[in-house]
Amino acid sequence: MTVQEWLGTENQLGQDIWERKYRYENETFDEWINRVSGGNSEIANLIKEKKFLFGGRILANRGLENKGRKISLSNCYVIEPPEDNIESIFDCAKKLARTYSYGGGCGVDISKLSPRGAKVNNAAKETTGSVSFMDLYSMVTGLIGQAGRRGALMLSLSCEHPDLEEFIGIKSDLDRVTKANISIRITDKFMAAVKNKTPFILSFTRLETGETITKEIDAYEMFHKMCEMNWDYAEPGMLFWDRINNWNLLSCDDEFEYAGTNPCAEEPLPAGGSCLLGSINLAEFACDTGFDFESFKHCVKSSVIALNEVLDEGLPLHPLKEQRESVYDWRQIGLGIFGLADLLIKLGIKYGSPEAIDLCDMIGHTMADMAIKTSAVLAKEYGVYPKYKPEAVEQSAFYSKNALGETKELVESFGLRNSQLLTIAPTGSLSTMLGVSGGIEPIFANYYTRKTESLKGHDEYYKVYTPIVKEYIDKHGLKDDSELPDYFVTAQTLDYKNRIYMQSIWQSHIDASISSTVNVPNDFTVEQVEGLYMTAWDAGLKGVTIFRDGCKRAGILTTSSTKENDAIEETKPLPRGYIVVADDNVIGLKRKIMSGCGSLHVVAMFDPISGELLETYISKGSTGGCQSNLAAVSRLISLSARAGVDVYTIADQLRSCPACPSYVGRTMTKHDTSKGKCCPDAVANALIEMYKEMQESISDGDKDISTSVKLQTIKKNIESKESTVDVEIKNPCPVCGEELTFEGGCNVCKNCGWSKCD
Asked: Which of 96, 241, 446, 461 sits in a 20 to 30 Å window from 74, CA-based?
């Protein structure tokens, strides 16, 4: 078999993803199958049939340890929460760096750190608070490379921590914590206070001094602030922590404790915990009679066995000793699903309908029972996980609901090989490669846009239907997607309550959690966000993410016009290949930087109306730096800015450069260096400073700003068989510049296959 035969000759995007992400050097498709299956013929056949895929780390890296690669097969880890002392805080940063270097994403809970103002016995006298260390962990995440991408990080905080309000608002500063997702551990007690609009006590006691810091807050007011930030910035996420603790196989095990979640929040894990991922493509189990339950059960069994094989192989490959010990003790795996929306469409069932919920209930129950049964059979052959306590597992509510009679008999006789079995992870790259919907999400849209290189010297864009939509249109001879039946619902048109009810029924059969996003329209209100989260809590979800179309996290920058009565105008990213030509009608600002080698001069030219960066000029003083390198950096910054890349993204790339020894040396000796760790970092800080000054001038109606550079307004002309469609790029892909979609809790590009999470 070739990759073309596997994915289809027309699926060039899928082939590109396989080639770029998962193929090792020049191996053939059959060689790749043999490597990632580990010689397991059943799992090899399931992959060929597109019924099952391992998580991305396994698909890319399994077997490469034999070639000298230091790389993990686990997608995610949770680092032991730092204790309330400086040594532990920086040890945590060290653990993050080592884990990133092996390819893993991380979660860290900072609830043990003292709140701002707590008394400490050092020169500072008072601590800067838990939130202040988030920048440290974010910086570490951005510094460590992972084969062209950066590590992923989740930072969480308890809703009872006195720094809660500061934590909620940190993402409103676009310069801070840029390399981490953030989530709040929400308790039932807090949500009850919100519902009843009663006061809530925030409290923290320092173990070292015995000092207790408390704050009384209005629970509803604080909840409103959380929802307002979600509406505006899509963060912080909410983790319903009591539900996380109470709905799993270990809920009655007094020895076990979750320490945090992975970056996409589908994996609550103990300190040092990791999880191996794999997903079943439900779309391939549609048949003439409905859903093929027998084939599905066989697939679940084979998948659980295969993930246990990978777990054993990967034990020596975890970067830290505590991770190897945790994985050995608890043996957590994460089997999930994708292609649900495609399955429902194939069966003519509307996503979110009672019929859909009933079918998902049956599929989820079947998967849970078979996964538990298979783990019991493996325990019979290989032994239970070392921390297994039979009475604790058998008393758990999750086990009681999901294990059927024969399965319970096997567990009572042999125990379990795994303490955690099921999760629904983001499957951005995997689902895009196969051309099916991700996770439990509805299809995001009926069509996307793709570009082709043209002999005309610019990109041409074409309307490309989602595969399941195209299949239906071709089969039934429809003119376009306007003629589709009503069971073709999308993420943008689906009622959020139906979306939550679907997630709820799946959560009842998943012992870990679900990475999932409720997409809402731009006109969705803060009050509606409140209702969404309250509905999610009432429905028993462990967590949920919302993404409002056009929110600030989508990358749309807004500035005020100089004319008093003008509306706010939007600066939209340009499609790839288009460069704005700046004339002399610009506003220039200047900064002097003291680098490790001497002084540098940074001049930035801005559009006088939008305030967006257009040009930079960087030159050295009498001593500092290499003029050729500075000129090259300056030209590339200018090109990026005029291609529509916003100043924060440019600064982010500059700040990713490693520290310069001369910069550090001068900082320690002469103490006159500008803020930063190297010249590019200092330039980034200067650009952001000037950009903010420019924005303030515009907002204040500076009289000197009176003319405008005429920026091109670019819209993609999308060609189809019958019509053309104009589509604006709101959230550009960092690889190809095309529109990103936010689904399954992750940004995904349908043009090139890039995914933030995979």
From this structure: 241
HSE, side-chain direction, 13 A CA sphere, residue 290: 11
Q: Which residues, in sequence order, are CB contacts of 639 under 8 Å at separation 6+?
A: 579
Q: Running DSSP on this structure, what letter comes out for residue 441?
A: P
- Report which of 390, 476, 430 is spatially closest to residue 50, judged by C-alpha positions: 430
CA dihedral 391, 397, 401, 403 (to 10 degrees): -30
- Residue 590 to residue 648: CA distance in whole angstroms: 18
How far apart are alpha carbons 595 and 500 in whole angstroms? Answer: 53
Q: Running DSSP on this structure, what letter comes out for residue 727?
A: E
- Give the residues across from 32 on adjacent strands: none
Q: Of all helices (H) and strands (E), which one includes residue 145? A: strand 145-146
Residues 305, 463 contacting (CB under 8 angstroms): no
Q: What letter represents residue 410's amino acid?
A: L
Pairing of strands 181-186, 237-240: parallel
HSE of 752, CA atoms in CB hemisphere, 13 A = 16
Instruction: Write down the residue that tokens 């008393």 correspond to.
Output: 395
Would you give the DSSP letter of residue 608?
T
Question: What is the radius of gyration, based on Cα positions, of the chain?
Answer: 27
Cα-Cα-Cα-Cα dihedral sign, residues 428, 434, 439, 442: positive
Question: By the 8 A CB rule, do 616 and 599 touch?
Answer: no
Strand partners, 281: 338
Q: What is the spatial distance between Cα 523 and Cα 467, in angstroms, rounded to a whole number?
A: 29
Q: What is the DSSP letter of 22?
A: I
Pairing of strands 724-727, 517-520: unpaired
298/280 Cα distance (integer angstroms): 11
Which 3 state secondary structure label does DSSP give 489? coil
Strand 420-422 with 332-338, pairing: parallel
Q: According to CATH, where is 3.30.390 located in the chain? A: 579-699
The three-class DSSP label of residue 421 is strand
Contact present, 512 and 266 (Cβ < 8 Å): yes
3-state DSSP assignment of residue 598: strand
SS3 9: coil
Could you tell me whether strands 153-158 and 181-186 are parallel, antiparallel, or unpaired per DSSP bridges? parallel
Q: How many CB atoms lie within 10 A of CB 388?
A: 21
Question: Which strand (E) or helix (H) includes residue 105?
Answer: strand 105-109
HSE (side-chain half, CA atoms, 13 Å) at 639: 8
DSSP-derived secondary structure for 246-258: HSSTTTT-TT---
**Running along the chain, 758 residues long, what does each successive block of 10 average in pLDDT?**
92 90 92 95 97 94 84 92 94 94 92 90 79 93 66 93 96 85 96 96 90 94 96 92 97 96 94 95 95 98 98 95 97 96 96 97 98 98 97 96 97 97 91 92 84 50 83 92 92 91 97 91 92 96 89 45 34 54 71 82 83 84 64 86 85 82 73 81 89 78 38 38 46 64 68 67
749-753 long-range Cβ contacts below 8 angstroms, 24+ apart: 750/13, 750/432, 750/448, 750/450, 751/13, 751/448, 751/449, 751/450, 751/451, 752/13, 752/16, 753/13, 753/14, 753/16, 753/17, 753/20, 753/21, 753/429, 753/432, 753/433
CB-CB contact of 247 with 398 (8 Å): yes
Cα separation, 693 vs 161, in Å, equals: 35
Strands 274-281 and 76-78: antiparallel
Is the Cβ–Cβ distance between 548 and 231 less than 8 Å? yes
Place of tokens 């919100």: 194
- DSSP at 553: G
CATH topology of domain 579-699: Enolase-like; domain 1 (3.30.390)
Q: Residue 116: which of 245, 202, 223 has the closest Cα?
A: 202
Count of alpha carbons within 13 angstroms of residue 585, beta-carbon side: 11
CA dihedral 584, 588, 592, 593 (to 10 degrees): -90
Task: Quote the CA–CA distance of 218 and 224 in Å, as a whole number.
Answer: 10
Dihedral angle at the C-alpha atoms of 703, 704, 708, 709, nearest 10 degrees? -160
